[in-house]
Amino acid sequence: MQDLILNALWLLVIGMIVVFIVLFLIVNFGSLLIRLVNKVPEIKPVVPLRKSPLPLPFEHERLLKEIVIKVTEGKGNIELIEKL
Fewest Cβ atoms closer than 10 Å to its Cβ: which of 37, 43, 50, 59? Predict the structure, then answer.
């Protein structure tokens, strides 16, 4: 009976150690992968603006672009201006 309890405790300890090691490796390799990916510069494709079917004065178009950039914190872009 005592041998069974010792075997069970030994198995429990070994299992916990293995789980700790595996989780430690997953966390460290994950953070290493995140750091490596963040070091790679983001490549943004250059998309030419299509000609707008609605002719707007240059000042209006520039103003609209500035508003979109300010509101979207630089993530937005005007591609086409159409009259609805």
Answer: 43
Query: Which of 40 and 53 is assigned the larger pLDDT?
Result: 40
Other Cβ atoms within 10 Å of 5 Cβ, number: 9
Q: Are 79 and 50 in contact (CB under 8 A)?
A: yes
pLDDT in tens, 43-57: 877 766 656 555 667
Measured in degrees and rounded to the nearest 5, phi and psi for residue 48 equal -70, 145
Joined together, the tokens standing for residue 80 give: 């086409």
DSSP H helical segments within the chain, as ranges? 2-39, 58-71
pTM over cut 0.85:
no
